[in-house]
Amino acid sequence: MTKTAAIIGGGVIGGGWAARFALSGWNVAIFDPDPEAERKVSEVMANARRSLPALSEVALPPEGQVKIVPTLADAVTEADWIQESAPERLEIKHKIFAEIQSHCRKDALIGSSTSGFKPSELQQGALRPGEIFVAHPFNPVYLLPLIELVGDDATTTRAQEVLTEIGMKPLKLRKEIDAHVADRFLEAVWREALWLIKDGIATTEEIDDAIRFGFGLRWGQMGLFETYRVAGGEAGMAHFIEQFGPCLQWPWTKLMDVPELTDDLVQKIASQSDAQSGAHTIRELERIRDDNLVSMMRSLKGRDWGAGALLNAHDTRLEGKADPDFTKPIITVARAIPIDWTDYNGHMNESRYGQLWSDAADALMRMIGADDAYIKSGFSYFTADTHTKFRNECHAGDTVTVVTTILEGAGKKLRLFHELKNSAGDVVATCNQFLLHVSLETRKSCDPAAHVSDKLASIIAAQAALPKPEHS
Ligand SMILES: NC(=O)C1=CN([C@@H]2O[C@H](COP(=O)(O)OP(=O)(O)OC[C@H]3O[C@@H](n4cnc5c(N)ncnc54)[C@H](O)[C@@H]3O)[C@@H](O)[C@H]2O)C=CC1
Ligand SMILES: C[N+](C)(C)CC(=O)CC(=O)[O-]
């Protein structure tokens, strides 16, 4: 049964949660008293639709329904997960939790997006305090996987399972603390940046350059400790601390001091920020950010590292293991086209068609039992010939499928016909691909193992009644 999320507060973060849940196949009900909420949420949804599916090499589940409802009770009554994302004011959040708990199911998970409040503060005066926990996300919630979870162990363990299912990276904190873990870092960096601007040392643009051309790039892949372990050289972490530990005693940092946010300082920051980024609207900046994040996370996927390894594991979960119904056309690829597959002509680059044919052949190989274990045993298929015909264009964000027909599959020969189709079912391109079964030891062609040729024969028989694809 389709699960339901209730989002209370549909601003920057609530909208991001709504998109994350809906694109993971959940129905979403949003309550927000702002008459502009519907427009704002639909803009976040549009951003999410063009970016989140591009992180995946497989199709996402069908999108859930998203609706704005007139009362908080309408949103929460049936919900499996309720996410409070109202302004960062404790009295507002208390009122909301009281209303949530008088209408919601007893087994509903009730998370708060709070950036700084501890669960014990959120729970003050609540009907069932232990049910309220912190689920702190990062903007944009539909792309960044981290969620800091703080609260009752059993409840946050249940929350952890749900978040993993929707492709996120829950991080359970051992103890509650103001501003959790990640925002403690962000606050330290923010405080130092304010000083640097106030003291006229650097502008907003120079500070951003200091981050994005240097340690910011490192942090996205290894974080703080692994990066510094490497920086310690062969002598390692202890040596690193010995060398740089004393800096904390030197005047490198103003960490304990907070600059006063005077009108002058706010004006200085705002005008520097306008000079730096004012040429773009916020929506344009969001799209630039999202495209960059998708490209960076896709690179990490190729390395199976960090956030990329998480995405690969999520793809495996989404793909499932069950055999398709072989009496129907075989779908070997179902996915969205990522932005980094497109080129200066504004459409998918020709090299990526080769990628899709290769992915389709790999999927077909797994279906006939020529899977990873079979390849490890010393046998595989090599492509000997491909003929691609381009018939239409394909753009970033398009959802496409590859339908693969087995034209020939006897002995060592395997001939496949792939049709790349867009979401309207139109053929974008076709490929006639000829493969030979090989021994990876001799590098010569040979007949496949009996279980592979038998499976191939049974699929060809199951497909016999289907019409032959056009132009094959
Ligand atoms: N903006 C950010 O970068 C991040 C914010 N957060 C947290 O997320 C929460 C929401 O922040 P944003 O989305 O940035 O704020 P926002 O101002 O964009 O959105 C808040 C929304 O709550 C609505 N609202 C006000 N009173 C309400 C009520 N009684 N019931 C339901 N909705 C109500 C407002 O109309 C508004 O649409 C805060 O607790 C914040 O600390 C967490 C991570 C990052
Ligand atoms: C600025 N902030 C404290 C609201 C930031 C966050 O809470 C997380 C984020 O997305 O940076």
TrEMBL record:
E.C. numbers: 1.1.1.108
Locate the 3-hydroxyacyl-CoA dehydrogenase NAD binding domain: which residues?
5-173
Q: State the reactions this protein catalyses.
A: carnitine + NAD(+) = 3-dehydrocarnitine + NADH + H(+)
Major subcellular site: cytoplasm
- Provide the 3-hydroxyacyl-CoA dehydrogenase C-terminal domain boundaries: 181-246
Q: What is the residue range of the signal peptide feature?
A: none
Annotated residues that bind NAD(+) are located at G9, G10, G11, V12, I13, G14
Query: What CDD domains does the entry give?
Result: 4HBT
Subcellular localization(s) per the UniProt record: Cytoplasm
What Pfam families does the record point to? 3HCDH, 3HCDH_N, 4HBT_2
A molecular function GO annotation: carnitine 3-dehydrogenase activity
Entries under Gene3D superfamilies matching the protein = Hotdog Thioesterase (3.10.129.10), N-(1-d-carboxylethyl)-l-norvaline Dehydrogenase, domain 2 (1.10.1040.10), NAD(P)-binding Rossmann-like Domain (3.40.50.720)
Instruction: Write out the pathway annotation from the protein's UniProt entry.
Output: Amine and polyamine metabolism; carnitine metabolism
Q: Which UniProt keywords apply?
A: Cytoplasm, NAD, Oxidoreductase
The similarity comment for this entry is: Belongs to the 3-hydroxyacyl-CoA dehydrogenase family. L-carnitine dehydrogenase subfamily.
Role description = Catalyzes the NAD(+)-dependent oxidation of L-carnitine to 3-dehydrocarnitine.
Q: How does it assemble?
A: Homodimer.
Q: What is the protein's given name?
A: L-carnitine dehydrogenase
